[in-house]
Amino acid sequence: MADIIGLLLPFFGLILIGYVAARVTKQPAEALGWLNTFIIYAALPALFFKLVSQTPIEQLTRIDFIATDIAATYSIFLLLFLIGRFLRRNSLADSTIQAFAGAYGNIGYMGPGLALLALGERAAVPVALIVCFENALHFIVAPALMALEGGDKRSPWRLAADIARKVLLHPFILSTALGFVVAALSLHQPIAFERFVNYLAQAAAPCALFAMGVTLALRPLKRIPVEIGYIVPAKLILHPLVVYIVLQAVGGFDPIWIEAAVLLAALPTATNVFVIGQQYGVWQERASATILITTACSVVTVSLVLYLIKSGVLPAQLFT
């Protein structure tokens, strides 16, 4: 158990430091802008490029893995969407944000650092694939469903063009694509360039987690939404369980890849869920509360998932 605490302390400790710093210094939310810019446009893209460019190309073309992982994730999305839309009679827009709250984990900020520290460099490829392909699909699904609701006033052609631009020009996607090219062509990277990329990549996890703590502090919990009762267990328990079972059922994947996917699925709700809600003016306060509550609860649930993985309790092959 001491090993698990040693793995988690740097991550949740950095979130806590960011949270406390924001509470003590009382800086405005705008003060976080340039740090977020550095994280999204420099540090994390450098990390993804580094992970992908140093990987044999045959490992980067496992479409079966990413398709299976996305199918498992979107089964959670669909379940929560149907609950919100037909059982609770919410609008399509509200149901969409609720579904993202239970299926869109904080894979960009928390995923790479935690997975690499817990599972080692062999987890780099599945982490990079999951982060990039899941984010790309989320960027497509969110505006598409909002357009159906009528919350997006753009024309179909303008909407499609904007979605394509957002996906293709996102720093995570661009850096990963560039890494694919370097890996496919076995291009030699100059030593100075490698050092520069490593320097940026090393800053990704600390800066991202600190910024996350600040963000949580700037969005105080005003009320606990009723939907928390089923969204939290769906995100923190059901999501990683479904990912594990589906990947095992399909089979043919390295156990490290499955463990990486399960760990990323166990992460709390992404702050992007609040951003999406804010963009369309729906479910904003409740999205903020969901992020805060799932992050707090994930201290326990992520610890449990790590214990199951590191102790060998989680079977490497569920189906024989």
TrEMBL record:
Main localization of the protein described in the UniProt heading: membrane
Topology term for the membrane: Multi-pass membrane protein
Subcellular location: Cell membrane
GO BP annotation list: transmembrane transport
Transmembrane segments: 32-53, 65-87, 123-146, 167-187, 199-218, 230-250, 256-277, 289-309
GO cellular component, one term: plasma membrane
Highest taxon above the source species: Bacteria
Keyword ATP-binding: no
Keyword terms, alphabetized: Cell membrane, Membrane, Transmembrane, Transmembrane helix, Transport
Listed InterPro entries: Mem_transp_PIN-like (IPR004776), Na+/solute_symporter_sf (IPR038770)
Membrane keyword on record: yes
Entry similarity comment: Belongs to the auxin efflux carrier (TC 2.A.69) family.
PANTHER family xrefs: AUXIN EFFLUX CARRIER FAMILY PROTEIN, TRANSPORTER AUXIN EFFLUX CARRIER EC FAMILY
Protein name, per record: Malonate transporter
Organism: Rhizobium multihospitium
